[in-house]
Amino acid sequence: MCAQVFSHSDVSAEQDRRLVVMDVDSTLIDEEVIDMLGEEAGIGERVAAITERAMRGELDFDAALHERVALLEGMDASVLDTVYDRCHFTRGALDLVRTCHERGWKVGVVSGGFHEIADRLVADAGIDFCTANSLEIHDGVLTGRLVGDIVTKQTKLHSLRLWAERMGIDMAHTVAIGDGANDIPMIQAAGVGIAFCAKPKTQQAAPHVLNERDLMRVFDIVDEQ
Q1: Does residue 205 carry a pLDDT above 80?
Q2: Is 124 a catalytic residue?
Q3: How crowded is residue 135: how many other Cβ atoms within 10 Å of its Cβ?
Q4: Among 10, 16, 23, 30, which one carries the catalytic annotation?
Q5: How far apart, in whole angstroms, are the C-alpha atoms of residue 28 and residue 44?
Q6: Which of 71, 127, 195, 211 would be a feasible disulfide site paired with 206, CB 3.0-4.6 Å?
Q7: pLDDT tens-digit profile of 58-117?
């Protein structure tokens, strides 16, 4: 799991410090990991249809996640390596993280996806904090179940607030970016909330909308605030 380690240097009253928190699937990366796992299981269309409805806010996200994960029962855990190798960072994602760090900001990700993929993406990008779900694996095989608490829309919001508090950053200086209905609470709570190439419900709820698939355009919005 991603280590959440905070040093004394993280805590600062400087007004130009910010915390940027974003979703992973279809935001940090171009793909939806659960859909790719479904493809590897030969049930891609079935899984993708559930994902789409959940992200539009038409299905309860928790129930939809459990339903999709259950369909993966019996898959060899090596499929996670295959899916990770197929992931692509969204255009501008790595530059966004680099630029944030150059400015002395921190970056976190909150994902309804899985630590087994997210942790590797976080390491690749040099992201500071991570919250995600964990798949249950027994004897090298996916059991079709999750381990621990499920990452919900409230979990995402809590992570944003928790990291900001621990870093001594006012919520007014936070940025939240996401595309799905489960990102809405954190988008609305952040100082700058951005719907990124998002579902209609998310765009309608967000203070800011970015429909160009380039995460560096986030700064066009943030720097105007």
Answers
A1: yes
A2: no
A3: 22
A4: 23
A5: 21
A6: 195
A7: 888 888 899 999 999 999 999 999 999 999 999 999 999 999 999 999 999 999 999 999
Q: Which of 25, 128, 179, 183 is catalytic?
A: 25
Q: Which of 29, 27, 35, 79 is nearest to 53 (CA)?
A: 35
The CA-atom distances, in angstroms, between 154 and each of 56, 111, 150, 200 are 17, 12, 10, 20
- Taking the C-alpha atoms of residue 25 and residue 45, their distance in angstroms, rounded to an integer, is 17
Express as a percent the part of the chain with pLDDT over 90: 81
149 labelled catalytic = no
pTM of the model: 0.90
138 — phi, psi (to 5°)? -130, 125
Hey, what are 157's tokens? 């919001």
Q: Bin 182: left if φ > 0, else alpha if -120 < ψ < 50, else beta.
A: alpha
Q: How far apart are CA 81 and CA 92, in angstroms?
A: 24
Q: What beta strand segments (E) does the chain contain? A: 19-22, 106-114, 129-138, 141-147, 174-178, 192-196, 208-210
Domain 15-32+86-222: CATH superfamily is HAD superfamily/HAD-like (3.40.50.1000)
